[in-house]
Structure formats: C-alpha cells, structure tokens
DNA sequence: TTTTTTACTTACCGGTGGGTAAGATAACAG
DNA sequence: CTGTTATCTTACCCACCGGTAAGTAAAAAA
C-alpha cells in the first residue's frame, strides 16, 4: 500500500520492529508493533538500571513519547514487567520441550539443557526472568512466575535423575546438583554483556563442558594416570 | 522506664548483641552495639525486601525507634548499605587468606574455596555482597565494591590455574570455569533460607563435590589418587 | 543539685514517581 | 468536508521517602 517515500524503511519482519525507537514515528501504525517496542525498550532499561530505578518517564523518553502514552499499551508498570517475565519464560519452555523430544540419555539431555539455557540467558527477555526481582511483582503475578520457575527446576532434576538411572551420570543429590547447575547458568545474566569478549555460543559450550565434566583431572582424555587407591 | 533489674539481660559478648531488637531498650548503652544492631536489622531487611523497597522507617520500626534516630549512627541510607558490603567482603577475604595459606594443590584449594565461599553465602552479610544491587551505590562506593569482587575472582582463577599447572585440574578456560563456579556459589544467596531443609554445611559439601567432579559417570568417585605426569 | 552532653522525638520539607483527567491532533469512515 | 475514533500531550494529584530542624528528656559530669 503506497509506500510513499520516507516510510520505505520497511519491516523485514512483521513481528520484529527494526528499531523500537522508530516504532512511534508514525502516528497510526499497528498497535502490536508499538506495544512490542515498549516492551523491548522497557526490558532493556530494566536490565540496565533495574526495574525500580527505571521510571515510566525513562521508558517513554527513550521512545520519544510521553509517559501517559504508555498507558495506551499497558495498564500499569507492573504489567510491563510481568509481560517481560512471560516472554522470557516462553523462551525457556520452548528449549525445554525441544530437549525432552531430542532423544538421548540423561547426561546428553543435561548437556543440551545447559547449552540452550545458557544461550537464553544472553537474550534480553531471558535475562529478565532470572535477573529482575520477583519482589517487584504483586503476589498473584509472583506466584505465576514462581510456578514457571519451579517447572524449569523440575525438568532439570528429572533430566539428572534420568541420567543417574541410565548410568550416564554418577549418583548424587539431584536437588543440589540442579541448584548448582542452574545457579551457574542463572548467574550468566548478571555478567553477560552483548558487546563483551565472550560470545553466547562460547559461553554455552564451555559451560556445558565445565559443568558436566567438572574440573578434576584424570579422565581418559587427559594426560594423567589415575591410580585407584582403594580397590 | 527505669526498670532497674530488667537491664540484666547482659551481653554475653561485647561485640555481638543478643537481639538487635533489644539493643535500643536502654537509653544509654554503648553506641557501637547500637550501630551494629542497626546494621544487622538493615541487612536482614535488605535481604527480605531488597534495598530499594526497604525504607529508613522500616529499619527504625523494627528497632522500635524512629527514623531520625538512625542518623545518629549512619550518615545516610547508602552508608548503611556500603557497610554491609564491607563486612561481607571482609568475611570472604578472610576465607581466601586461610585457603592461600592452607597448603595443597590447586584442586584442593578450589575445593576449599567452594566450601568456604558456599558457607559465607549462607551468612547475612555475605549474602548481601552478592545479592544486593550494586546499582544502588554511588559510583565511588560501587568502584570500591567492584574492586573487592575483582579480587575474589582473581584469586579463584589463580587457584584454578595453579591446579592446571600442577596437573590436578584438567586444562580449561580458567575465565569461564571461574564464572561457572562463582555463579553456582553466588546464586546460593538467592535461594538459601536459614530455616530451610538444607544446612549450610550440606550445601557446601555437596557443591564442592558437584563442581569439582562434574556429573559425568565413569571416574572413581572421591577415593582416588591422582598422579601428576609432569615434573 | 545544676549543667552539659548524648540520645531520641515530633513535625516538617522537597523531590520523585506512578497514575489520571481532560484536552488536542491526526487518521479514518462516511 | 464532517463527525468519530484512536493516539498522544499538557497539566496535575497524591503518596511516599530520604533527610533535616528544632525541641525534649534522660544520663553523665561537675
């Protein structure tokens, strides 16, 4: 429909705005795109400055609009936050389903989990899930988010248990093992920076290795000999 | 007032108040004890509700005093926060020094690190260091705290490197291995609860095992002797 | 006792931030 | 062109919070 001239920036993709900054350039575009632009900028700001220190004015300013305009797309500030959580949890759940389908033994599933999850932790909405403070949510919303997180934890534990059962993982306390792995992965969202030295894929691969193999030398691949001390 | 005998609660220890709540019962006690009481309650509240959602009134209320009284012991809110960080960092540094002194190979040092650090993460001031948001500090204070944290990271990496050099740890990217271990440990302060099912010592021991041994089955578990090939 | 000092209270200020009321302007339908 | 609707703005309200001023009362000193 009559691209006019200046408007020819053109969406490469209907659902992902090229730059959230420009989504509000035209007065009448589709509301879905604008809503998404709000969400993306908000998520970005929440990660930069935390939810509490990000004012609605901050979000509006970065979008070149004024605060009340935001209330056309979201009921209130918490609504934006909750949506960030939901999107992030959706990303995680996707990967979980893929892994459960991906046949393989328990250890392989855990490895796949670590790899995928680490990758999600380098994506803004994914980072929001673990980095933002649940305490900023009202109790209803918090309960919802908690249930998502519990689900993730249960899945990871079941992968580990599967590995113990099929012999690919050495017996251990699954609860603590899961806490340990999930902790290492969750913490990624605290130090990762998009323009940093480490690429998401590097992180994911190295984490998968470190967490499954441990540090201890003495596996076949290493140049050491192991002498069992106590038959 | 002037309860006379009620004062016989008596400090079992000069430096640790029995209950922060009662530190302000008498009008004239030593200011050091009261200052400490403020600090403890503040730390507790910061962990319960976050720094941002904890008002000076909240702190005062829990101590049965009024807000302005707090300003006799601290210049401002951030001053309290910074002191929490400093105390926590002090705890961590202590353990680091003990470990460096404690002779042993690299792997043993890393194991000791994991054990001690996990324990610190179950102590309020220790938890503050990693759980509270640096963004709440002014840039000067933030720089100070960051330098403490960098130091911790450097020490851990040096332990790992030492292990690689002496053959007790299989070669790996020390930076990512350190991130992985530190992440798992730091995350403890996000889920640990004092009255929970897991005791600090259980956590510490299990983490030391999981992180050093990994999940992979096939090595003899703990009772093995490693013979370094080099030298 | 009287005086001085320390510890604390009541009352208040200024700034900030979430959210709203009501009006303006552009897009669209007819 | 006209009326209607969606979109966005200016102006404002109110609650809360960090911090302070100024006064009160208890403890310690004299």
Write up this protein:
- 2 copies of one chain form a homodimer.
- With 231 residues, chain A is mainly α.
- Chain A has 10 helices and 1 strand, in the order ααααααααααβ.
- Chain A has helices at 31-49, 56-62, 67-70, 77-101, 106-120, 124-131, 139-166, 174-186, 188-191, 200-213; one strand spanning 225-228.
- In chain A, α1 crosses α6 (124-131), α4 (77-101) packs antiparallel against α5 and α4 packs across α6.
- Chain A is elongated and about 60 Å long.
- The model of chain A is unreliable at 1-16 and 220-231 (pLDDT under 50).
- At the A-B interface, α8, α9, α10 and β1 of A face α8, α9 and β1 of B.
- β1 (225-228) of chain A pairs antiparallel with β1 of chain B, so a sheet runs across the interface.
- The structure holds a DNA duplex (30 and 30 nucleotides).
Rg of chain A: 22 Å
* Oligomeric composition of the shown chains: homodimer
How do the helices and strands follow one another from N- to C-terminus of chain A? HHHHHHHHHHE
The amount of helix of chain A comes to 55-70%
Number of helices of chain A: 10
Mean pLDDT of chain A: 87
Shape of chain A: elongated
Structural class of chain A: mainly alpha
Number of strands of chain A: 1
Beta content of chain A comes to under 5%
Summarize the biggest pleated sheet of chain A.
none
**Greatest contact pair?**
A-B, 56 and 56 residues
Between the first and last Cα atoms of chain A, what is the distance in angstroms? 79 Å
* Poorly predicted sequence stretches spanning 5 or more consecutive residues of chain A: 1-16, 220-231
